[in-house]
């Protein structure tokens, strides 16, 4: 691995589902000699694409976990994270983007900019990731890369311009014209591995010239030198254009657009040249860390291998040999056997084994330096932890983690399944912060919650396949929440004298809404009316009460519990007595604190032919949706709305029948909002009747 | 807030234009300026004012993306909220946002007929019934007097009380109406009840009232606005 950081590219490959990201990655690995045969995503050879290492991924033809790999292209070391396209796996995309310096936004030349492309683009913008676009599938019927480029400009607001145009389209796609060098490129050999340069076909000369002029005009604003040459009407050297494109791309003000077909082995290599030429190396990007010794003041990391180590764990995986932790090094270096510090826990950690990942295979390495993405073995940490060499105390800024919105009850079919299920859940929750699990003590059911139906479905399937844990699954339930809206006092005495040692504890104080965070406990006890050793018991009691709210049995969040009075008994007071007293106190105050039920609201985007706009809007309106806006894009319209998740079950079927199958929708979590009175009453009634009937 | 502050500093409040929406007759307003001086920001302020009064607003953006249009509101609200108490401001924003809907069209895809068709989808299904329309990006070079009259008729048919347009002027085109309304709207100024003109002025923005039927200020009056929020500048 070269140490010169200008030769390193950390890139992500992101796009809408089924745009061909994994196929593209497969070709990249083939052309960079990382693999020696090409396998298709849903291949008949039964091997599957390299990056879809999970059996389920190969079967369904979608990427679920982002896989990491690296390759070397013309002397540049490229670390690639292949990311999932489905919105339910957004956390994987978010994590990848946080640690990447650049990205390839893959689009389908037929589907164009689809809803998930918009989400991914928004995420790239959030993490200031410079990007190039690759319009894939130009061999498909209806391919129209020009339309897709226009959509990149209009829908995503990108200053996107083609740096290539296709030679032929659909079945006639034979190569591309490089508008920078003004050459035709063809891809010979069985797998398109031989790139042949030629003159531009005469019939495409005019089109190429026009497109090049548009490109030059767009990028000239990033280079005074280029503008001068253009004004003087002199010969423009390709390097001058490349330099301008690179400047614009790094400044997030320009997006070069490449075209091709990964499946047909067309034009993947020039796109790799684009990664090298236009995407940033680690030193081109400013990454900020928080100085924990200086009130979390932001400072830029240096990227210098000679500086103290700063390394971020961005993904955990529980593999065959224990926990595998993916890390990105921002400055300094780490060698096998080094001891590093976890900034969050303050614990020392020894790096026993360092690996470079190649999907599910790994290659042991001795050290990694600034800018690298590698994996550590046997390091106990959480996703998002920062490691340092101990000379500095800092943390990389936290990652945005969305809240789970949907839950499902799972019941193991037998005792063996129960044990295996626990193992599986333990692993999945550690790996994926958007996947949560708990046991409902009333029904004794295990509840799993996540970002969508597919998200949970995949985990249930993985439990079965990887852990042999057969479970029966209940109907998906919306993860409602309860919260309080007013301050209320509580005062409760727990007293029990039924033979044996008694129980006594009195807890008094108040609860109030907490603006930020889920729960806060404040101890304002003076004079020892509750002894020190029982203060934490009160906290525990309140926390137990939060698990199930009295309105609809949902988790209670946004509560601050303050205790300021109480009483104890020298003999009868105990940890349990004060926990029960706090539970009683919570019950006492909760209903007085005007509790309300909150529901997850989804940001829904429906895209369909304009003629169905009325029906689409009507269907959203019937679902308590609030239409934010509509966008008319020629024959197509996009309707954006906020809709409660509870109303979205089965929507795909309804939408299909309303629009003759011509519309599609995606949704992602937006916020929790209070449910309307009618729904509130229904939920309470349902919960009460469930409790009554056991 | 915040609602009170927002309302009091809004340029419309000084003009007394809020009554227009309550008027029986449909009226049209126009915000003009050279490119890039803040027409959309003024229109967003006008929309926010209606929203604060509980009136439904449909913001029609021609040639601009949905996200960019929404970003105008987000940015202006963020600037206004930066000086206010966070909780109450957020509550105000949450209260008024259901009063806004954005509709975007491509430049080539917009016509009053198409707009009426889309509005019909909303009104007939009882999804959204706006009383104030903001039309940003309408091409006055191409629109005739008759086209604009069609908007008036459209308002009556659909129960819309007020439409605010934006129009771009150009330095090189010096044509003007008798009321001082510059091209490209100099021949249609009779159709507008209010015409406001934005001009830069040192560190502020000058909002000239070229015409304002039924306003509480006379034509020729200027307001000094904060260039970031387009609210009346505080002394």
Could you please describe the fold and organization of this structure?
- The complex is a heterodimer of chains A (694) and B (235).
- Chain A is α+β, with helices and mostly antiparallel strands and 694 residues long.
- In chain A, helix 10 (415-431) packs across helix 11 (453-467) and helix 12 crosses helix 13.
- The radius of gyration of chain A is 29 Å and the shape is globular.
- The model of chain A has no long low-confidence stretch (mean pLDDT 84).
- Chain B has one domain (3-225): Rossmann fold, CATH 3.40.50.300.
- Chain B has helices at 3-9, 11-15, 19-22, 39-52, 66-81, 86-96, 112-124, 145-158; strands at residues 27-33, 57-62, 100-105, 132-136, 162-168, 194-201, 204-212, 222-225.
- Chain B has an 8-stranded mixed β-sheet with strand order 3-2-4-5-1-6-7-8, with helices on one face.
- In chain B, helix 8 (145-158) links the parallel strand 4 and strand 5.
- The chains are: A alpha+beta (694), B alpha/beta (235).
- The A-B interface holds A 154-155, 157, 515, 613-614, 617-618, 621, 626-634, 638, 640 and B 65-70, 87, 98, 101-106, 109, 114, 118, 120-122, 124-128.
CATH class of the largest domain in chain A: Alpha Beta
Adjacency order of strands in the biggest sheet of chain B: 3-2-4-5-1-6-7-8
| Most extensive chain interface and residues per partner | A-B, 20 and 25 residues
Question: What's the architecture of chain B in CATH terms?
Answer: 3-Layer(aba) Sandwich
Q: What oligomeric state do these chains adopt? A: heterodimer
The number of strands of chain B is: 8
Low-confidence stretches of chain B: none
The dominant shape of chain B is globular
CATH superfamily of the largest domain in chain A, by name, is P-loop containing nucleotide triphosphate hydrolases
The fold-level CATH name of chain B is Rossmann fold
- Fourth CATH level, the homologous superfamily of chain B: P-loop containing nucleotide triphosphate hydrolases
Q: Major beta sheet of chain A, specifics? A: 8 strands, antiparallel
The CATH architecture category of the largest domain in chain A equals: 3-Layer(aba) Sandwich
Q: Using only CA atoms, what is the Rg of chain B?
A: 17 Å
- CATH domain topology of the largest domain in chain A: Rossmann fold
